[in-house]
Structures are given as C-alpha cells and as structure tokens.
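hiii so um. not sure if this is the right channel but i have a protein structure encoded as tokens and i wanna go backwards to a sequence. like what aa goes where. can anyone help
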C-alpha cells in the first residue's frame, strides 16, 4: 500500500493524470464536454430553484402566521409547479450523468485493456517481482468506481460552491448584525455583522476538521480492502477452474485453509474499516442532528427581539442549512473521497506498471528480427531468470524452412524459456533471433481455449475467413474428435469440459485448419499415446507448404518425428529448476 502521506500529496496529480486523456485528448471529448455542460447547467438551475424555494418559505410561513388563506393557497399552487420542475430537472440530470459516466468508463476500459494487451504487458507484468495484483479487478471495478465518484464528487463540489455563494449573501442580509453586550466584564459590546453566516462558517469548519482527522486512515484501509476482496475472488475462480485436479488430489482441506486465510484478511480489514466508519457515523450523525437546531438557535435573538417574523426565521434556518451543508461537503462525502483516493492510487500504479513494461519492450535486450528469409536462426543467445541469474549461454541453432527441430534436455535446462524467448515473451537475456515466420502458432502443453463457441476455439487466434465447415469437419476427423462437429456453434467452458488429451488434439485441428508456416510445440503431445502422437505429427508433415516446427519434449519417440535434435545441457549453477 502506498504511504498515507504520499497518497495525500498525489491526490490531485493522480486525478489529473487519470482524467486528462479523456477530457482533453480523446475523440469523445466534445460529446463528453457537451454532456458535462448540460449537467452543470441543470445543477446551477437546481441551485436557483433552491434560492426561489427559500424566498417561497418566507411568504408561505408568513401567510400561516397571518392567517392569510388566499396567499396560502396561491403559494401552494406555486409550490406544485416548483415540485414538477424540480422532479423533471432531477430526472434529466440523473440521465445525463449516468450516460456520461458509462461513456467515460467505456472509453477508459477500452484504453486500459488495449494498453494491458500491448507489448504483452499482461504477461510481462507477471514476471516482475513488483507484479501488480489483480489487474482484472482494477479494470472491471476500479474504473467503474473512479468514473462514478469523480463525476459525483465534482458535480457535488461545484453545486456546493454555487450554493454557498448564493445563500451566504442571503444569510448575511437576513441575519444582519448582532450586538453582544459585554458590559459585565467591562468591555462594552461587540457587533458581529452577518452573524448567522459567520456562525455557519465556523460550524462547518469545525465539522470538516473533525471528519478529516477521524477519517484519514480510511484511505489505506479501503485500498487494502479492495485488494483483499480481489485476492479472495481470484482464489474462488482458481478453485472452479482447477476443480478436477483438486478433486484428484483430495486437496479440499488445503483449499479450505487457503480460502479461509484470504477471507480472514477480508474480514479483519473489514472490521478495521467498520470501526473507522462507525466513528465517522457518530461524528456525521451528531453533526447533522445539531445542525438541524443550530439555525433556529442562531435566529432566535432576532425573532424574540421581534426583528423578524416567523417566515423570516424559516428563511434564516433554510439559508443557514444551505450554507453549512455546502461548506460540509467534505464531511458528507468523506467516505466517497477516501474510496476515490484509494482507487486512484491503484489505477495510477497499474498505469505506471504498464508504462514500465512498454518502456522495457521498446528497449529489448534480446533482438528479434523479422526477415523475409523463411526458417529460424538463433545467434549467441543468453538467457537469464527475472532476478538476473544466468540460465543458458551461447545458444545457437538454425532451422531451415520446413525443417523440424526437437529440443531436449533435463528439467530446468530452459527448454520452455527458449521457446518463450524465440516468441518474444522472455525479455531476460541477450542475443539475436531471426525469424521468417509470417503466421506462427504456439502449442503449449495445455492449449488455451477462449470463451465462446467451439468454432471460435478452433479458429483462434487468426480467425481465417476462408475456412469452411467441410475443412473443420475434416480436421476434427483427422485428430479423432468427429463427435465435436455437431457442437461447433455451442458455447461452453471447453477448457473444463475437454480432457487435456482432447484439448491437445483440438490444438492440432487448429494447425490443420489455419495452416501456420511455423509451429512451436511445448510438450504439445504429452497427454497423448505414442500412436496418436505419431499420427498427428505425420498429418502436419502432409501440409503444403510443409511448416517449420520447433518442438520441446522428453519422449524418445519424438526423435524419429523430427529432422534434427538440439540437446540442452543441465542448467547453469544457481538457475531455478522450476524453469523448464
């Protein structure tokens, strides 16, 4: 969590950094400004209606005091018109605000998703020791809270300022000066001009100071609460996605302990938030209760001195309430401000991490060259772990167009890391990689199957437009999954429904349908029997033109299915054995 003082200092800088792109640079800025202008205009009109209502109160209550029935009825009619206008204005304000909020959120969500995906930041961010926790929550929840709270608080602040300016002058004139005799202590008397307005400022100032003092720790607590909630939700998602493996392991006790541990953090931090919010509630409730009677106490000297009528005391009370309420904006909105401050810290941190990844991607230490020459060549490649520990040195290999190369070696030798480096995913190391691939395809041990229909899964990632149903049927027949053809348009969680072996065969169906020119396989047939493995490799050989293949595997049977073998020695001393 960012230090509390630093968060306070950066509040406005973070707000400007997050809002500037949409309001000054985006292609939606003029439409957004038009909506905002409409919202501001409606809020100013509502303030005017409140000023009119304050004047109406004086006439209405004076009519009651004087038993003037015609004026009383006339004022009731005026109030009905006022109420209708106020309701219509409030409804239109709500609609425009919601439209602006969702449009702003849509733009920011699209921008954050694009930046998160660019340069494979979503992957590279996980390799760093300073990995950002729960980026999904920051995009899905934090952006929603940010756009909602910024609009709500900004419009609320503007309304408070205009209300204060309007009613302060009214209150100053209505209350007039108050002379306090001090003869008992030999000081004569003191006159306070606009004493009710001065009293409203002092009362609101005291309430704001107490609220900030009590509520300041909420920023850090809310920051942690959002993180703990996201961690707990992520654990539940992982349990669902890996339900079969956990069931095989009988890992329910360990999962139960982990979930309880993470929810324990949610619970403990929630209690801390609750205690702090209860203190704020005590403060705000007491403040509001006292505020309901203070204006009458303030106006009482004038009323009992018969300087004002009953309607006048109602006008002073209303004006006092409007002034102290506008000055109490921080008091009434502190929980929202604290939440916004925590959200802005999370979004700014996330944005800076993406920027760091983009900067690192722009200065690669491993040079990736896209050439017009088919095939693949690796020159003087050195690989390291994220902490800088050397993993491999002097890796040199070459694959001619249409060649099949098998990379073998003990666990931890860096086989999978070598594939990542060739694909441009692994930034730790140096060297040069030249590739002529125009349409590469990567087959990991457990293929990625996106959400959606089975057809979309087979056409992922290139989605070629010239693939027919006959092509897909033939591919599924070749890989031994003919029954799936009838479910091409069916949406399902295919990564859970299909076994690992079926998923690997589905990945080979992608090859047959999409015909990539270069294929990277990382233990891509580990869940298949040797006969099926050989048959699928032979199917690929029959493609025209013959694709270039770089495979990683342990099985000795793979040797006969490749043109050449590249043996990796055991990893360098100190390299992690977890890196394969």
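sure thing!! here u go:
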């Amino acid at each position: 969590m960012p230090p509390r003082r630093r968060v306070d200092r950066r509040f406005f800088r973070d707000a400007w950094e997050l809002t500037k792109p949409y309001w000054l640079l985006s292609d939606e800025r003029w439409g957004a400004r038009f909506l905002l202008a409409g919202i501001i205009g409606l809020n100013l009109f509502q303030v005017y209606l409140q000023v009119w209502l304050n004047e109406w109160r004086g006439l209405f209550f004076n009519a009651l005091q004087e038993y003037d029935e015609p004026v009383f009825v006339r004022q009731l009619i005026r109030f009905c018109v006022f109420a209708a206008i106020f309701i219509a204005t409030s409804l239109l304000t709500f609609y425009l605000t919601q439209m602006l909020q969702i449009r702003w959120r849509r733009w920011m969500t699209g921008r954050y998703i694009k930046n998160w995906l660019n340069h494979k930041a979503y992957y590279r961010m996980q390799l760093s020791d300073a990995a950002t926790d729960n980026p999904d929550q920051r995009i899905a929840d934090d952006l929603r809270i940010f756009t909602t709270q910024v609009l709500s608080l900004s419009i609320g602040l503007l309304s408070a300022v205009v209300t204060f300016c309007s009613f302060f002058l009214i209150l100053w004139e209505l209350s007039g000066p108050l002379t306090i005799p001090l003869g008992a202590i030999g000081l004569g008397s003191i006159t306070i001009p606009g004493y009710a307005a001065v009293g409203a400022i002092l009362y609101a100032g005291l309430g704001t100071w107490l609220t900030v003092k009590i509520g300041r720790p909420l920023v850090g607590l809310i920051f942690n609460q959002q993180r703990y909630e996201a961690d707990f939700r992520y654990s539940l998602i992982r349990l669902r996605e890996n339900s079969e493996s956990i069931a095989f392991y009988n890992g329910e006790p360990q999962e139960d302990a982990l979930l309880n541990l993470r929810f324990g953090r949610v619970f403990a931090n929630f209690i801390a938030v609750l205690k702090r919010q209860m203190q704020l509630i005590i403060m705000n409730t007491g403040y509001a209760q006292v505020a309901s009677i203070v204006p009458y106490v303030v106006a009482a000297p004038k009323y009992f001195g018969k300087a004002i009528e009953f309607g006048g005391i109602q006008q002073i009370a209303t004006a006092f309430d409007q002034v102290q309420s506008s000055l109490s904006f921080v008091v009434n909105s502190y929980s929202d401000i604290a939440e916004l401050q925590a959200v802005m810290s999370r979004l700014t941190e996330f944005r800076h991490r993406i920027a760091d990844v983009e900067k690192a991607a722009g200065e690669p230490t491993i040079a990736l060259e896209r050439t017009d020459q088919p095939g693949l060549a690796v020159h003087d490649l050195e690989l390291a772990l994220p902490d800088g520990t050397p993993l491999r040195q002097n890796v040199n290999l070459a694959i001619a167009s249409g060649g099949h190369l098998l990379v073998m070696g003990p666990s931890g030798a860096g086989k999978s890391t070598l594939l990542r480096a060739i694909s441009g995913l692994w930034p730790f190391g140096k060297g040069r990689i030249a590739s002529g691939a125009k349409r590469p395809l990567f087959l990991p041990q457990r293929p990625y199957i996106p959400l959606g229909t089975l057809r979309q899964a087979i056409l992922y990632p290139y989605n070629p437009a010239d693939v027919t149903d006959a092509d897909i049927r033939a591919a599924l027949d070749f890989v031994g999954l003919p029954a799936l053809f009838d479910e091409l348009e069916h949406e399902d969680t295919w990564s859970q429904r299909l076994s690992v072996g079926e998923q690997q065969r589905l990945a080979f169906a992608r090859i047959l349908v999409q015909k990539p020119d270069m294929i990277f396989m990382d233990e891509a047939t580990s869940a298949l029997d040797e006969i099926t493995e050989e048959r699928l490799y032979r199917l690929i050989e029959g493609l025209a033109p013959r694709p270039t293949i770089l495979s990683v595997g342990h099985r000795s049977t793979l040797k006969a299915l490749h043109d050449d073998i590249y043996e990796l020695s055991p990893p360098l001393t100190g390299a992690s054995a977890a890196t394969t």
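oh and Confidence is low (pLDDT under 50) at residues 1-7.
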